Amino acid sequence: MNGGATVLAAGCVLWRRAPRRDGGIEICLVHRPKYDDWSHPKGKLKPGEDTLAAALREVLEETGHRCVPGARLPTVRYLTGGRSKQVFYWAAEATSGSFAAGDEVDAIVWLPPSAARTRLTQPRDRELVDALLEALHTT
After folding, report:
1. What b/e sequence results for 83-109 when a residue is b if at least 16 CB atoms lie within 10 Å of its CB, and e otherwise?
2. What is the pLDDT of residues 53-69, one digit of tens each?
3. Burial bucket for residue 20 (CB in 10 Å: 0-12, 13-18, 19+)
4. What is the model's pTM?
5. Which CATH number is 40's domain given?
6. CB of 64 within 8 A of CB of 99?
């Protein structure tokens, strides 16, 4: 079944400077119990919502963190439930906030890039870690 319009979503590869590592960063991953997976914070656009606004809203809803958007990262396209999905991503530096578990996301972790790459469930999400590192080296 190839039903209907493409599902549009947006998210961020959320990062922060590592508290105890010189010059290193940590990437925030979210655990979704519905799928038992680890991914970057993301979610569907609301009708008429701007993609960047949706990405920032989803980060806040899923991680409890506010962030400053940076470089635009690659758009990810894949099939889910017989429908095509397109997810727009940005690099985003966490600025403040704290996590509270909910129904959609029950845990987050902050990991160095290599550990984040390993923990991510989908290979397509691992490529976003590489894109983030590339973007941070050019800014």
Report:
1. eebebbbbbbbbeeeebeeeeebeebe
2. 999 999 999 999 999 99
3. exposed
4. 0.93
5. 3.90.79.10
6. yes
